[in-house]
Amino acid sequence: MTTSIRGNDIGEHGSPTQAGQCLPPAGIAAARVLVVGDVMLDRYWFGDTNRISPEAPVPVVRVSRTEDRLGGAANVARNIAALNAQAGLLCVVGSDEAGERIVDLLHDSRVQPHLVRDPSLPTTIKLRVLSRQQQLLRVDFEDAPAHEVLLAGLARFDDLLPAYDVVLFSDYAKGGLTHVTKMIAAARAAGKSVLIDPKGDDWERYRGATLMTPNRAELRQVVGQWKSEEDLHARVARVRAELDLHALLLTRSEEGMTLFTDAGALHESALAREVYDVSGAGDTVIGTLAAMLGGGASLADAVAIANRAAGIVVGKLGTATVEFDELFPDTPLGERRGVLETQP
After folding, report:
1. Model's pTM, two decimal places?
2. Residue 244 annotated among the catalytic residues of the structure
3. One of 42, 197, 283, 301 is an active-site residue; which one?
C-alpha cells in the first residue's frame, strides 16, 4: 500500500518515547495538511435559568452571551493550525450568514479556506443553549449538498493535492464526503498519507487509508462487540486486512487509545486529570496526529502526543483546541522559536 508516514510500524523498538519526553517534530511549521469533510458552525447561547416557562414545563433561559466556534472538519483544521502547522480546508458551505461566519472564523484561526459554495444549502449549524455550565438543549440546522457542487469539490481536491503532504478526511455524515473513495485513491496515487475520522458502518468507502481513528462505538458498528482484548485484536486485524488499512487507532475514552499496526498493538493510557467536555476531542486527536506526522514524527510518537492533547482538551468547554505551548510546555525557548518559525 502506498504510504508516506514515517515509522511504518510502531517504532524501531516497538514503543515511542515516554509520554513525558515526547518532543515536537522539528518540521512542524512546515507540515502541510489538507482537511476535507463536513463543516458546521457551533453556536453557543449562554444565560441564567431562574424560572420555568408558564407555556410548558421547560426552563426559561435569559441569554446574556453568544459565541460561535468552528465545528466538524473546520474544528479539525483549527486544531492543526493551533499547533502552527499549515492547515487548508476543503468543504461545502452555503451562501448565508453562517457560511460567512465560518469564513471569518477560519481567517482568525489561520486556516486556508478552499470553500465550495452551494447557494441552495443552509450551512450546518449546531445551536447549544447552556446555563450554569450545563447544556440544556441542542438544535441542529442541516441539509445535504447538491450533486453538482460535490463534483466541483472533487475537481478542486485534485487541483489542491500537490500542495499538501497529508490529507485528512473528517466525516460527519452530512454528505460532504460523497466522493471520498475517489479522493483516497488520488491521494494514494500521489504518495500522500491519508488519515480518516470515520462515520457509519460502511468502511468500504475508506479502503486504502493510511490511518483510521474510530472510537469504540464506531468500531463496534463495523466489527461487532468484542469479548476480550485478544478478540478485539483479531477483529481489528481482519478489518485492516480486508480494507488494506496501514494502521488503526482506537480511541477508548477513559481507557486511552490503542494503535494497531502489522507490528502489533501499542496502548496509551488516558492522561486527563479532569473531564469537563468530550465534544471535539476526536477532532483534536486526529488533527494533532496529522500535524505531527506532517512534521516528521514517527507514528508511535504522534500517537503519544495526540493522547496528551486529548487529555488537555477534555478539560475545556465545547469544541476547543490545544495550543503548542500547552502541549510542549518544557520546550526551551530557542528550540520553540525554531519549531514555530512562521512560514513565508
Report:
1. 0.87
2. no
3. 283
